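Ticket reopened. Same input as before:
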Amino acid sequence: MYAILRYRHARIAGLLFGALALNAVGLASDALAQGWQPTKPITFIIPAGTGGGADQMARFIQGVVSKHNLSPQPLVVINKSGGAGAEGFLDVKQSSGDAHKIIITLSNLFTTPMATGVPFGWKDLTPVAMLSLDQFVLWVHSESPHKTAQEYLGAVKAGNDRQFKMAGTGSKQEDQIITVALERVIGGKKFTYVPFEGGGKVATQLVGKHVDSTVNNPIEAVAHWKAGTLRALCIFDAKRSTYTAKVTPNMAWSDIPTCKESGVNVEYQMLRGIFMPPGVNQAQVDYYVELLKKVMATEDWKSFMEQGAFNQTFMSGGQYRSWVESAENLHRDLMKEAGFLHKP
Amino acid sequence: MEEISSLFQGFGVALQPYNLALMALGIVLGVIIGVLPGLGGANGVAILLPLTFSMPPTSAIIMLSCIYWGALFGGAITSILFNIPGEPWSVATTFDGYPMAQQGRAGEALTAAFTSSFVGALFAVIVITFLAPLVAKFALRFGPAEFFAVQFLTFASFVGMGRASPLKTIASMMLGFALAAVGLDIVTGQLRMTYGTTELLRGFEFLVAVIGLFGIGEILTTMEGGLSLKGVQARLQLNVVLQTWKKLAQFKLTAFRSCLIGCWLGITPGGATPASFMSYGVAKKMSKNGDRFGKGELEGVVAPETAAHAAGTSALLPMLTLGIPGSPTAAVLLGGLLIWGLQPGPLLFIEHKEFVWGLIASMYLGNVAGFIIVLTCVPLFAAILRIPFSIITPVIMVVCAIGAFTVNNAIFDVWLMVLFGVIGYVFNKLSYPLPPLVLALVLGDMAENSFRQSMLLSQGSLAIFWSNWLVGSVFGLGVIMLLWPLIGPLVHRASLLIRDRAA
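Engineering reply: fixed in the latest deploy. New output:
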């Protein structure tokens, strides 16, 4: 059945843009030099729904690959979002040895198995490369009286338990983990955490003043920040952002203080990385590392990174593996302290 | 009148030969996508999206949105001819469209569906053209409580609809709620009723259920009835379009009401599917022929189709102005905007004027072009019913199976579709109504989430549902709708009484 879908995809592509469909012939010589190259279309799994951050990035990569003829075979993007992404990860875990399958990850690689007990983990997959780290920013409405993170959290601390409302994406996932970390910093005073289906909806809930704050990713909130309805209080990274171009009339991403600077010692970033099924060989992994490096060298990628204020960190091999391992431990600690671990 | 001049500049962009060609291509592809159940607008746009990256953004969005219009038109065709909704928002169209086809009035039903779609979409585009900034602010007023009020209103306007016994209606609805609850619960982050299986992780996909319940179930019923589609004897009338238009004139009020419902739900963003159900429910309650709904009433096609298209079109507005997609297709288009380097949001209308007005102009032109294309094909579509049942049925089965597979690329869903087909057949035999099940399946999950989000915000107090005029009036309207079967006759009797006194 997969074959039918791809056939149709190829047919539509062929009908529309003959030239593009011919990219099967492109760069073949380049790939030959690397020892392994794909012989059929590559399935690119997104363990999240359409329209979200991971989906946007995956479809962007797919577009860049076909626009610049970077691969002899096209990428076919498939969303498998069931069970907070468990569906997609299990699919890859069970495709042992299939080198024509890759998956993009977000923090649900760690949080979903811990929160739901569905049996998978990064050790069941083959790490390929880290593309970037997605940032989180503490946002309030621009009409809010709180100008800094310290002021806002001071107000939360002084207020009643659950008086302040934090909207976020999903439950027991990254947004709620950050919220719990904030609660610890202010001595255990609670937010009312309200989970929504996606980051875009979370941002509009804040713009509509239905909640008091969010920890949206930059790309989810930037449009409202530009329009002057949101205020960025602090960024949950160790260092300030490196993007210095003005986004609003008087602020650039680099003007947002880190949370630590503003006296709120919380750091969190989200992995945007690529994995493959288990049981693939090094030559196959290398092919994708090279492919991704080519994607990241394009101007399109650089402007995409700037738009979403991503932290551009590339890692592969042993470095990537040890990063993922420490990230898993970090999530286990955070989830354990928050009481989010699955109890069978 | 700045809008008008901007719009005409937009027409200038959209009318370039290159863009016109893309428009026609988009419509034709869209109709094909709409006809194939499961493929759907969202999937179709997602598959074609990467191909547009090398085009100028304006041309790309023109083509993709034309696919969207085409899919909106195409969804109605299979609903009417074979009782198989090509898109979720076409489910309500089957209620009266399919009986009409069985009575040999397929051409009439198709014409009504296409015309209503056109009217609904046109109305929504006009709203977008002139009210965009205003309307965008209105959408921001919708928090969880407001969403729940709207969902409650949809359920309420649908209650007491069928002729089936109330107990059977409730049983059917409860089964729908139970199926909707399977999968991940977003509020607690826990899995429900998946029993450790991978296949159930994603829950029951609405389209898979609908293809099975309606399409396969209908085929099973027809097979039992002697292997013939009842529409076969239908005479082909080439002037069916003009004749239907004469009849449609009397449904102006229904169409207007459906436009309002559709725009409202598209903007907020409730979506085209609830809009079509709510509009059908309201039309049935308001129409003087309400008791004939479900047996092949033209008005029963007009109401859901108008609302679905008004909603589908206006769903693009929150996407452009706020960056929140009003429908799955809009969500995929949203990804496209970002890739073309356009940041959807309140400033898009200012920073990328040419793009926005080109898009809006293409909505007008795409709709007109699509309308003409599908209308000229009405006799052709209706003629499909003349193909012998033994030839067309295997084709339908294959198309349904591909459709069910495509939704999630899962072979399990094909078996699920067959299972739902059997359930649909048994429901028919025992005269349990299917619409309540379908409605609960599509809205149950959303309504549950909104309700629990509201309860979190209010810390458990139900007072949140009348905490401001907006949520209060929507909720109040819902309560009136819910009690209408009781209130209606009283009002009628009271008015008779007053007239008698006066006499």
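Chain A has 13 helices and eleven strands. Residues 2-134+270-338 of chain A form a domain with the D-Maltodextrin-Binding Protein; domain 2 fold (CATH 3.40.190.150). Please confirm and we'll close it.
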